[in-house]
Specification:
single chain; Rossmann fold; 9 helices; elongated; disordered C terminus; binds iron/sulfur cluster
C-alpha cells in the first residue's frame, strides 16, 4: 500500500489512482464510449496503469503505438507479459518520415511523435502513465484542468508541468485521465516491486527511459548508448539519411554524407540548429 503523509492527513495513492480510473470509466459509460483506451508504452509507468486497471475492475484495452524504432527488448516484454496488447501500426515508418521531411527528428521538430505516437484513442476515454514528477518544473501543476485551445493539444507521453489528472483534448476529441499523475519514481517502483509486477529488463540494464531508439528528447549519452547497443537501428538511421540526401534538392542539402547527418543529429541541441535548416512548430 502506498501511503503518503500530506497536510490533509494520510493518502492512499493506489486507492486514489483506482478511483480516478473508475471515475474515467463512469464518464466513458455515460458517453457510450466503451472500454477505457490505455495508451500503453510498456514502460514502468504504463505497467502501473495496466495493473491499476485490473485492480479497478473496469473494462480497458491496452494499445501500443508501434514506432518502428521500438527496442526489441520492449516488444518482447509486452508480448510475453501483456499479450492482450493491441499493436497499432503507423502510416509511415520512422525511415519513411525522415526521407519525407528531409530531416531527422530533432528536439524542436518532433514530427515523428505526432505521426507515430499520437494516433488512436479518438472519441474514447484515454488513460496514460503521464506523471508530473517526470518534469523538472513541477511546482505549478494543478490537479485538474480542461484544455480548450488548439495550442494545448495533448501528447500521450509528454510529461510537462501542466499535465493534470483529467484532461480534455478538443483537437482529437479525447478525454485523457492520468491516474498516476502525482506519483514519484519511488512510488512507481514500490508499487511494481512490492506486487511483483513484471517490468522491462532494459531498466535493469541501466536504462532510465525506455522508448524509441535514438529519440532526440533523450540525452546525448543515452542516445549514443542505445544506438551502440542496438546497431541494427544505427544502420537503419544511416540508410534513411542516405536516402534522404539522395532525394533532397542540392541547394537545400546541408550535409554531404549520411555520417554528416548522423553526427549533426546526435549533437542536436536547440542552440545548434543549423542556419537555414527547417524548423517546425508542433502547434501548426
Ligand atoms: S518518442 Fe522521440 S523518437 Fe519517438 S516518436 Fe516521439 S520524439 Fe520521435
Amino acid at each position: 500500500m502506498l501511503i503518503k503523509n500530506t497536510l490533509f492527513g494520510e493518502i492512499d495513492m493506489v486507492a486514489v489512482a483506482i478511483k480516478r480510473i473508475q471515475d474515467a470509466y463512469e464518464i466513458s459509460k455515460s458517453q457510450n464510449k466503451g472500454a477505457l483506451y490505455v495508451a500503453f508504452s510498456g514502460g514502468k509507468d504504463s505497467v502501473c496503469v495496466a495493473e491499476l486497471c485490473k485492480m479497478a475492475k473496469v473494462p480497458y484495452e491496452l494499445h501500443y503505438n508501434t514506432t518502428t524504432v521500438d527496442p526489441f527488448e520492449l516488444l518482447h516484454f509486452i508480448r510475453d507479459n501483456y499479450p492482450e496488447t493491441i499493436f497499432e501500426k503507423p502510416r509511415y515508418s520512422m525511415w519513411q518520415l525522415i526521407v519525407k521531411k528531409h530531416m531527422p527528428p530533432t528536439r524542436i521538430a518532433r514530427f515523428c511523435c505526432q505521426e507515430l505516437k499520437e494516433k488512436g484513442g479518438e472519441n474514447r476515454i484515454c488513460l496514460t502513465g503521464v506523471r508530473r514528477f517526470e518534469s523538472v518544473k513541477r511546482s505549478s501543476r494543478k490537479a485538474f484542468e480542461t484544455v480548450t485551445s488548439k495550442k494545448d493539444r495533448i501528447l500521450f507521453d509528454d510529461n510537462g508541468e501542466f499535465r493534470n489528472a483529467l484532461e480534455q483534448c478538443t483537437i482529437k476529441a479525447k478525454i485523457v485521465c492520468n491516474p498516476i499523475i502525482d506519483w514519484e519514481d519511488e512510488d512507481v517502483w514500490e508499487f511494481i516491486k512490492s506486487n511483483n509486477f513484471p517490468y522491462c529488463k532494459l531498466y535493469d540494464m541501466g536504462y532510465s527511459r525506455i522508448g524509441c531508439i535514438g529519440c532526440p528528447m533523450a540525452s546525448r549519452f543515452e542516445r549514443e548508448r542505445e544506438l551502440k547497443e542496438h546497431p541494427f537501428f544505427k544502420q537503419k538511421y544511416l540508410d534513411a539519411f542516405d536516402k534522404m540526401l539522395k532525394e533532397m534538392p542540392e541547394e537545400t542539402r546541408n550535409w554531404k554524407t549520411a555520417e554528416d547527418v548522423y553526427n549533426w543529429w546526435l549533437n542536436d541541441k536547440i542552440e545548434k540548429q543549423i542556419e537555414g535548416q527547417e524548423e517546425m512548430n508542433l502547434n501548426e
